[in-house]
Design goal:
- The chain is built from 10 helices and 2 strands, in the order H-H-H-H-H-E-E-H-H-H-H-H.
- It has a two-stranded antiparallel sheet.
Length: 256
């Protein structure tokens, strides 16, 4: 989410550690609550949170393309290859769908959706800059902060760079679209410039950091800064209460 857009939404404008705590509480609740129905409820709450944050479109797309695919694969594997004996729901060719395998897949799958969805929501409403700046303010060294920031930005940067290289190859008359064999032929001509440009970019970033005094052992200052607000403290207290209630409820279920 862009910084200008996040300021207009109260949830997206929360302190990064506050939003991270919300994501952690949602993930812990999904792990604590028994049965897949309760986990579905947690996943619905995460979707509502994403909608209220103004990032539901991005959230749904990322969930579908990542943990959503894993959920479907897990469901099919457990449904047809569950090892224990169970009631047969239906038979397809030589495979038998088992009732216990379905329930196990739903419990595990929705736990995966909740944990992955909570992290996806967090990074949808929090910029990498804010996340790393918060870690640095909590005592993380500037070098470690730069490594984390570079890692988080690696995938989108490489994606944009590969698109530029593909467009350049098309301009030179190289066929980049077609069947599998055609795409495989373009792999090496695209990969080599991508690797070389990445190495060159690393060298340029290293020289830029040294020119700006990155290695000097002095206290760093920031032109851009973020601070906690009273709303953040209220949200953290609310999340504490939700977490305590969830843990107490789980303990009560164990004792019953």
């Amino acid at each position: 989410m862009q910084a200008s857009e996040s300021k207009k939404n109260k949830i997206a404008a929360l302190y990064p550690l506050t939003k991270f705590y919300i994501a952690v509480v949602m993930a812990v609740l999904a792990l604590l609550l028994p049965g897949f129905v309760s986990k579905i409820g947690v996943f619905i709450l995460i979707n509502i949170l994403a909608a209220c944050s103004g990032v539901w479109g991005i959230f749904a797309k990322r969930v579908r393309n990542s943990v959503g695919i894993l959920f479907i694969i897990l469901l099919l594997i457990q449904l047809f290859f569950y090892p224990n004996e169970s009631d047969i729901l239906f038979t397809f060719w030589i495979f038998s769908a088992k009732k216990e395998g379905l329930f196990f897949a739903l419990r595990l799958g929705f736990t995966l959706l909740c944990v992955g969805g909570a992290l996806i929501w967090y990074f949808a409403v929090t910029t990498e800059r804010d996340f790393v700046l918060t870690l640095e303010k909590k005592g993380l060294s500037s070098k470690a902060s730069y490594v984390i920031l570079s890692t988080l930005q690696m995938v989108p940067v490489m994606k944009k760079r590969s698109q530029v290289i593909m467009n350049a190859q098309r301009a030179r008359g190289v066929e980049t679209e077609g069947n599998f064999i055609t795409r495989a032929k373009v792999f090496i001509p695209t990969l080599v410039p991508l690797v070389l440009s990445s190495i060159q970019g690393m060298e340029e970033r290293a020289l830029t950091l040294e020119a700006r005094g990155f290695s000097i052992e002095t206290k760093a200052t920031h032109l851009y800064d973020i601070f906690e607000t009273p709303l953040d403290r209220k949200v953290v207290l609310l999340m504490h209460a939700v977490l305590v209630i969830g843990i107490a409820g789980r303990i009560a279920l164990w004792l019953i």
